[in-house]
C-alpha cells in the first residue's frame, strides 16, 4: 500500500473531507455541542486547544502515520456537505501489512444516535478494505467509554482484548484500552449487515 493521500468520502448523510485549519471554528462549535471535553474518558479538545489539535493531526498526517478527516452533516435537501459535526482519522497506519486503525473520533452530542457515525464508519471501512486492500482494520477505545464500545461492537468488530494501563489521560488517570478488529475475510458479511442497517433507517 502506498502512502495515504487526503481524500473525500461521501455518503447519503455525512461527508468526510480532509481536515484543514479552515475547519477550526466549525469544530469548536461541534465540540461545544454537549461540551464534549468534559467527558473525562475522551480526549476531545477544549475550544482554546482546538487549533493545536488540528495542527497535531496534520503534523502526524505529514509524517505518514495519520490521515485526518472532518465530518460534515449533509444538507437533507441538497445533499451537499453542511455543518461540521466532528472529526475522525485513519491512524496507526502500517503500509506493509497493510492495516489501519480508525480512531481519534468524536461527534457533536446532538448527532449521537442520528446514524451519522453508523454511516461514517462504513465509508472508512469500505475505503480501507476495498481500495487500500487492508488485511485488518482496528478500533481502540477507553474501557469506560461504554457508548463507544457498544458502537464498535454494532459495526461487527470483534473484541481482541484489553490493554490495561496502556496510556495516560489528560487528567492523569491511566487508560485501559479495549481493542477491536475486523479482518478482510469478515468484511463482506460485516458490509452486508451495515448496508441493511443503514437502509432500514427512516
From TrEMBL:
InterPro entries: Acyl_CoA_acyltransferase (IPR016181), GNAT_dom (IPR000182). It comes from the Bacteria. Pfam families: Acetyltransf_3. Residues 14-158 form the N-acetyltransferase domain. It comes from Glutamicibacter mysorens. Signal peptide: none annotated. The lineage of its organism: Bacteria, Bacillati, Actinomycetota, Actinomycetes, Micrococcales. PANTHER family: BLL6696 PROTEIN, N-ACETYLTRANSFERASE DOMAIN-CONTAINING PROTEIN. This is RimJ/RimL family protein N-acetyltransferase.
Amino acid at each position: 500500500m502506498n502512502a495515504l493521500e487526503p481524500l473525500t468520502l461521501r455518503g447519503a448523510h455525512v461527508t468526510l473531507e480532509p481536515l484543514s485549519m479552515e475547519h477550526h471554528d466549525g469544530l469548536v462549535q461541534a465540540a461545544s455541542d454537549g461540551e464534549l471535553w468534559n467527558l473525562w474518558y475522551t480526549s476531545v479538545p477544549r475550544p482554546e486547544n482546538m487549533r493545536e489539535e488540528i495542527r497535531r493531526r496534520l503534523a502526524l498526517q505529514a509524517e505518514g502515520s495519520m490521515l485526518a478527516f472532518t465530518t460534515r452533516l449533509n444538507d437533507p435537501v441538497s445533499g451537499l456537505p453542511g455543518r461540521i459535526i466532528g472529526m475522525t482519522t485513519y491512524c496507526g497506519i502500517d503500509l506493509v501489512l497493510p492495516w489501519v486503525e480508525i480512531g481519534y473520533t468524536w461527534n457533536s452530542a446532538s448527532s449521537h444516535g442520528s446514524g451519522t457515525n453508523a454511516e461514517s464508519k462504513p465509508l472508512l471501512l469500505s475505503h480501507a478494505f476495498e481500495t487500500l486492500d487492508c488485511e485488518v482494520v482496528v478500533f481502540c477505545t477507553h474501557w469506560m467509554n461504554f457508548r463507544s464500545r457498544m458502537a464498535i461492537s454494532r459495526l461487527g468488530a470483534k473484541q481482541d482484548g484489553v490493554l490495561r494501563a496502556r496510556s495516560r489521560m489528560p487528567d492523569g488517570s491511566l487508560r485501559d484500552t479495549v481493542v477491536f478488529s475486523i479482518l478482510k475475510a469478515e468484511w463482506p458479511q460485516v458490509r452486508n449487515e451495515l448496508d441493511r442497517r443503514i437502509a432500514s433507517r427512516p
